[in-house]
Amino acid sequence: MYKKLLLLLSICSILCILSSPANAQSRVITGTITDVADGTALPGVTVADNAKSVTTSTNTQGKYAITVPAGAKSLTFSYIGYQAKTVTIASADVINVALNSASNTLEEVVVVSVGYGTLDKREVSSAITHVSGKDLLTVSSNNPLMSLQGKVPGLSITNTSGSDPNSSPSIQLRGVSSRNAGLGPLYVINGIPGGNIDNINQNDIESIDVLKGGAASAIYGTRGSNGVIIITTKKGGAQSQMFYDGFMSFDYLTNELENLSADEFISNRVANKQGQDYKAKTNWLKEVTNAPAFAQKHTAQFSGGTAKTNFFASGDYRDADGIDLRAHKREYGARLNMNHTTDNNMFVATLTAAPRYMKTNNSDLGNFNNALTLNPTYPIFNNAGKYNYINTGFFSNNPVENANEIKAEAEIKELDLNGSLRMNILKNLSTTVMISQISRSAKSFNFRPSTLSSVVQANKITQTNFASQEQLENDQKNIEWTGNYAEDFGKHHFKLLGGYSYAIYNYKRLYAQNYDFPFDTYLWNNLGSGLYNGGAAGQGQSAVASTQNGSTLISFFGRLNYDFDNKYILTASLRREGSSKFGANNKWGNFPAVSAAWRISEEKFLKASLPWVNELKLRADFGVTGNQDFDNYRSLLLYGGAGYFPFNGQYYQVYGPTSNVNPDLSWEKSENFNVGLDFSVLNSRITGSLDYYIRTNKDLLGDYTVPVPPNTQQTTFTNVGTMKNSGIELALSGEVVKSDDFSYNVNVAFAYNRNKFISFSNEIYKGGTFQDVAGLPAPGSPGNIQRIQEGHSIGEFYMLRSAGVNDAGALLVYKNDGAIVQANLASNDDKQFVGNGLPKYITSLGNTFTYKRFDLGIFFRGTFGYKIFNSYAFYLGTPSSQSDANVLKSAYDSGSKYSLLKNSATTAIASDYFLENGSFVKIDNVSLGYRQPLNNKYLKSIRLYAAGRNLHTFTKYTGGDPEQVRVNGLTPGVNDDLNYYPSTMQFIFGLQATF
């Protein structure tokens, strides 16, 4: 027994001795990791050996210590936002490393979303503009696309009431494309077509890709005619991180219209018997303005996980006031993106959920109009301390009372849900099923109390107070099944996509109203207590309304990407799509596209002769797209109420046809041709693209006059008309200065667009050769001031051509025969084409400076080559304006041409006397930031920043900010509803922190 124990101890001792050399080979390596730019320590850097058997991370001082096994050959240092670096261990016990920022990588791969997939930017053969999330402008706005303003050539983004927190911008790509269908692009959010664009937090955006070429957008068929904007949100990774961004903003009036003060009103208007003095001094514009308008927004983001399972989650809160007294918005939003890959990489699952809740007080866009026109000697309150009843001026009401007493609120709920499952059948073959739902519910509430001065003054017995509720619900359900196959045969590379899409759209509306409630305190919460609609007065017909409608869209699509030797690229796609909106004879349509590119820079002859050219790619594409953005059931014979019929002492509702059936109703068709050049030179210090396009829109939708009988109605909604847009777009980026401490980058975007309306008619429907649009409102009967005519452009002003002003202060105009007469003696036959409200050129210049930890951005934006009809000068800018209404200072400014128009005989006659050059250049956005890395276990870094928006406008236009007059749509350059919502200058102060 003793011998056996001794033998066992001997064996154990020998094993320990033999193992000691191996343990001795394991060793500890230490070091410090810093930023190569400024030498600051980088906490949280991951350090791993080449076998990834051991890992560690740097502390708050950037220091690390790692015990590496005997067989370790190298260490890899990786950190988010920096280039990973691998260092050979050799015999060193101390390894210090300086990491480069990832933004300094010259050969950075740019991944572009092309619809149902992504491509390396070098593989793209169509016109697509890619914008990274980090390149978006710093703005405090309701819509994330305002941060894209001026960044994409050919993309027009305008908002005529930008300081209203509930407003939405008008977005148009490569000019106006339709008469009666939608003009806006299709939004694709994380691969889901038709997403809620206002359910996106700007901080969550990873990238935005704008599909401008027809070959790119044709993959979306009947929804691609106006272009496609693809938004990709951030996703998680193996690196755990928390990020916070919070800012506050202040809006101040800028470029505002100036009307007469009380003293000026007395000396100019009252003295000339054009107004009365009510003995007060009221600055109505100031009284209805909430300046500065304050807003705040806070975003928290969390990401992390492993290489197989990761997540990205964010939450945001925004609280914003408008520049008017009533507008306000409070919203809460969240987003969760989850990704999971099985261990064998066979299945990849994703899940996205994005809810948002908004509570709004809606602005009264007419309140500033009232303030502009009201007599400044009129007091806000009467002697009893009540709101004054006002019945003078243009609009005859008290705007301060309206803003404070009339309520218009809304509650909006949005929810985007989608999930996908991809099966990697083979290394180069996969199939994916994606299911999604996009829903939006909006409840609107309106209330006017019985205490309004207009109600009290009129001694109303009925229709005293008023309340209403409206609920709108939009729901979209999608299922898409795609398959992807890729194969390489030597220098031949193929990618094949096939798919099926099924979408159901549903819309519901419920509306209820009533008058004469016993208490104003009920607001809209007890509609049944009102006595007017359906009550004692028996006025039930307008009390309630409801509707529901829907449509279905089914598609089959495929795409082939081929390139040879990374030099010659060919892409072809086809989408076959059917919609329930279309007539029985035109349910289905085909949307083909083809594009090709030649990477000249990969040719040996160019590499040898021009080695400084890094990328030179010539491309061309052609695609057919559609537009089905019009109301449901327009192809069907619809019935509606047609009065009441008495029978046996009772009245019965009668129904009859309200529309003509059109079995041939179809989508608008757009034929798109684009040729472009992408280039990168001087070690990619200068990059850019140049595009020329022609887009012809055919089968334009509209109502056309038809005979009755055989038709039951006088008009039929059908496809007639042709329009063409053409233009040039240029994008240019350059690294002007690049050093360790200082850099200066410049970005230029330029777009030129021309429009031509070709025809109103076809073989079946013969319409007129023109349509008069842009009708001006009362007072007076100014009529229409623009005409859409065959052979002319959208936006052509058609009115009398002025010949100056006579000694009596009357407007003079030219007749058709060249004779000059007083304007009130001319007729409609004397109108002429006198200018265009559609801009010819839109450009921007972005400048980015960095110095050590400081960054400065200065962004200019300009629009040129168009006219604006100065509606404010026309109605409020002349001495002959309506009696007892306030006017602009220009009416009595001897330096203004409008002060000459003193004769009331020509006051309401529109002419090009009121056309002004709308061109402008803006100092649009200036931002300054400072980043400070922290040697702290709680914080990795902080960044303080400040930004200013709309800081100054250089323009000759005298009607305020020219950008407040819309240039998108069918009547560019005209404010035909007289609504005035002032422009603002905005200042933003924020903090970003990385944990």
UniProtKB/TrEMBL annotation:
Signal peptide feature range: 1-24
Matches recorded under Gene3D superfamilies: Carboxypeptidase-like, regulatory domain (2.60.40.1120), TonB-dependent receptor, beta-barrel domain (2.40.170.20), TonB-dependent receptor, plug domain (2.170.130.10)
Organism: Pedobacter petrophilus
Pfam families according to UniProt: CarbopepD_reg_2 (PF13715), Plug (PF07715), TonB_dep_Rec_b-barrel (PF00593)
Localization per Swiss-Prot or TrEMBL: Cell outer membrane
Family stated for the protein in its record: Belongs to the TonB-dependent receptor family.
Domain TonB-dependent receptor-like beta-barrel: from-to ranges: 360-951
Name the record gives this protein: SusC/RagA family TonB-linked outer membrane protein
Any one of the GO CC terms: cell outer membrane
Record keywords, A-Z: Cell outer membrane, Membrane, Signal, TonB box
